[in-house]
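Give me the fold.
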Amino acid sequence: MSELVHFETVELPEVLAVGRLVVADMNGLMPDKRTLGDLWGECLGNGMFARLEALKDFVHDPAYVGYMDCFDFSKGLFRYLCGMLMKPGVPVPEGFVAVPIPAAKVAVSWVKGQKEKVTEICRDAYSLTENKVVENNMKFAGGWCMEVYTARFDAPDANGDIIVDYWMPCV
């Protein structure tokens, strides 16, 4: 079971999510039946992140992100970008997509769970974060949300738990 262990709001400046963009359904499947996990494996294995990290003057945050926004809600489809947050003006490498994210107040939660259940953690993160937003007399501002993979994700604790940061714009 996933658990929200930290919550705060921060002011996010205008940034770009830069990386590889796909369309997926609510089960995390792309039209070719590959999963979002497969996408991450490809991006981690093909040097994509090294190309983004090489643009060090434009890196907003060194964490890797899974950015999501609605594509066709009636069909249960969303856009998913595997990449990094970059500063405006970044020279977008060929074959990459840049999605602008306007400045916003963002709810940031840390969602903890077993590393082997990362799909469940990510699935639970939206509702856990949204519930905490409502509990704090705010509401989801819509448009997008994002998984953020920091050092907390890469370093399981003694129980094998990892933390996925989850960002959601709020008002």
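Residues 59 and 156 are 25 Å apart (CA to CA).
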